[in-house]
Specification:
It comes from Floridaenema fluviatile BLCC-F154. By secondary structure, the chain is of the alpha+beta class. It is built from 8 helices and 14 strands. The chain has 3 domains: 43 residues; 119 residues, Uridine Diphospho-n-acetylenolpyruvylglucosamine Reductase, domain 3 (2-Layer Sandwich), CATH 3.30.465; 90 residues, 2-Layer Sandwich (Enolase-like, domain 1), CATH 3.30.390.50. The strands form 4 sheets. It has a 5-stranded antiparallel β-sheet. A 4-stranded antiparallel β-sheet has the order 11-12-13-14, sandwiched between helices. A 3-stranded parallel β-sheet has the order 1-3-2, with no helix packed on it. The chain starts with 7 loop residues before the first strand and ends with a helix.
Amino acid sequence: MDLPNVETYLIPQNLAEITNWKNGWSWLAGGTWLFSEPQPEITTLVDLQNLGWSEIEINSEGLTIGATCIMSQLLNYNFPENWTSVKALKSAVNELASFKIQNVATVGGNLCLAIPAGTFAPVMILLDAKYQILPLSGEPYWISALEFQTEIKQTILKPGEVLRKIFIPKENLELQTNYQRICLTSAGLAISTVVAAYNPNTQKIKFAISGCIPSPKLIEFPQIPTQTEITQKLNETIPLTNYLNDTTVSNTYRQHITQILMKRSLQF
C-alpha cells in the first residue's frame, strides 16, 4: 500500500453520516485495487464495509447483489438450479485473479473501477441488470448496467454518489451463457472479453463486448448468427477506430480476437 497522503479514515455506520463530500475523498470497499498502486490524490478513505451491503437476496422477481458483496460469495451461494446464467457470474469471479483477490474484492468495486478488463460489467449488461445509486442528498435512483460505465475508469457517478446494489431480473437468470476472455499472459488483463446469452424459447442471442474497447457494448441477433453476420454486425457497432490501440496490442488485433471469441461463445 502506498497512500502517503491519507490523513483521515472514516467508518460510517449509516450513509447519512457522510453529508459533505470533499476533494480527495474516496469510497473504500475491498480495496484490492485502491491499495495496489499509488493514489497521491486521496486524503480521506470512507470505508463501506460496516454498512451491511454484502447481501445476496433471491425473491420471485430475481436476484439482488449488494455492492460490497465479496466475489467469492457468488461461488459458494446455493442458487436455484434453473438459474443457468449464474454460470456467467461465477466466470466473472474465476476469470478475475487469484483466490486471494476473490476473497477480498467486491462486486461493486469491480464495476465502479470501470477498467475495460473488468470482469463483471459485460455480464451485468448481458443480463440487463439495474444498479441502485445513492446520492448524498435526494432519493436513490436506478440506471441500467449499459448506462453505468462511460469511458475508461469513468462512470455516471457524481462526486459522493455510491453504488448500493445490483438487481438482475429472474427471466434473464434462466438464459444459457458462455463467457470467453483472452489475455496475453495467464494473469494479465484481458485484451478482449465476450459474454454471450442464448434464449432457447425465442432463439434470440446477445453478446456483451468488453476489454477491447473503453466501455462495454451490447450486440443482439434474432437468432444464432453466421460468421459473416457476426463480422458485419460487429463492424457496424464497433468501428475499428473505437478499439483500444496501445503498446500491448493493436486495435486491428483486438477486433480480430473479438470476432473469434464471439464465434467461440456460441457453444452453449
